[in-house]
Write a sequence for this structure.
């Protein structure tokens, strides 16, 4: 790659000296991602409007995970296993790859960056598996944001490992009571508000009147989040991620969270591409790919 072809990427120091990478697309859209947690904290369209929610109470102080944006849940989603909530990837410092493999030759007008996580000594104590996790963050010419995860079992002991996963994505919305999610009708879901009991979605779309915390199973590759007040629709396209998690804490839970404003639940909704019900198993040398592409229709 010549200098003129290099992606417009800026590495800068941010809050508390944490490094973040800013990716800018020629038409004006941008993405910001912290090396801490490989955490996307900003995604702006060409008009400079913020599309992701980050709590105003967020302090950006490791080892605490960042509240909002897009959280990487790996190698465990939620409390579905022995590790800390949502696994350890979100509270580790990732490496910035300044010479990543190029995009395929048929891909034009996209800018991207790669971050890499390999287990440290402490990680191997709590999860004794060797892996390499490459996260590619790509901005397309229309401002669409793609996250592609490549996770490889690099172990030499012959042992497979198993994990669950999610892109824990907080969308910014004008008013949660004016939001609806389409693409989940008639599907089964596990309700985390009712001890993960299994139900079937009855509505023709999902709306919000109280706390929602559900894992929808075997979901379609496209899900839409409609914000009526802003006349904006987020489209989530996913590959390799059969499940979808939908979450809004509502008022009581919001008040109980120290890193979340009491009324902020009104201005966010999490809809996340995930692999939860059927964990992924990789033998040594095997690689898994999971992709989430976000775009906006107005």
């Amino acid at each position: 790659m010549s200098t003129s072809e290099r992606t417009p990427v800026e590495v800068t120091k941010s809050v508390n000296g944490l490094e973040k990478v800013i990716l800018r697309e020629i038409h004006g859209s941008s993405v910001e991602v912290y090396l801490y947690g490989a955490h996307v904290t900003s995604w702006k369209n060409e008009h400079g409007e913020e599309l992701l929610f980050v709590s105003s109470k967020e302090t950006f102080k490791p080892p605490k995970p960042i509240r909002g944006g897009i959280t990487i849940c790996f190698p465990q989603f939620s409390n579905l296993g022995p590790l800390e909530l949502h696994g350890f990837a979100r509270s580790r410092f990732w490496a910035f790859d300044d010479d990543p493999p190029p995009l395929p030759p048929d891909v034009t007008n996209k800018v991207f960056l790669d971050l890499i996580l390999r287990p440290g000594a402490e990680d191997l104590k709590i999860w004794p598996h060797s892996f390499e996790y490459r996260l590619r963050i790509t901005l397309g010419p229309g401002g669409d944001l793609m996250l592609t995860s490549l996770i490889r079992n690099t172990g030499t002991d012959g042992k497979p490992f198993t994990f669950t996963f999610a892109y824990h994505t907080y969308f910014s919305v004008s008013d949660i009571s004016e939001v609806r999610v389409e693409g989940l009708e008639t599907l089964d879901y596990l309700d985390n508000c009712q001890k993960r009991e299994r139900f079937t979605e009855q509505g023709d779309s999902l709306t919000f009147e109280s706390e929602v915390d559900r894992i929808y199973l075997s979901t379609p590759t496209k899900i839409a989040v409609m914000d009526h007040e802003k006349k904006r629709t987020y489209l989530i396209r996913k590959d390799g991620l059969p499940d979808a998690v939908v979450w809004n804490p509502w008022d009581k839970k919001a008040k109980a969270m120290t890193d979340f404003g009491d009324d902020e639940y009104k201005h966010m909704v999490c809809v996340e591409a995930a692999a939860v019900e059927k964990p992924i198993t990789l033998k040594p040398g095997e690689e898994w790919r999971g992709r989430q592409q976000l775009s906006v229709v107005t």
Summary: The chain is about 5% helix and 45% strand. The longest helix spans residues 250-256.
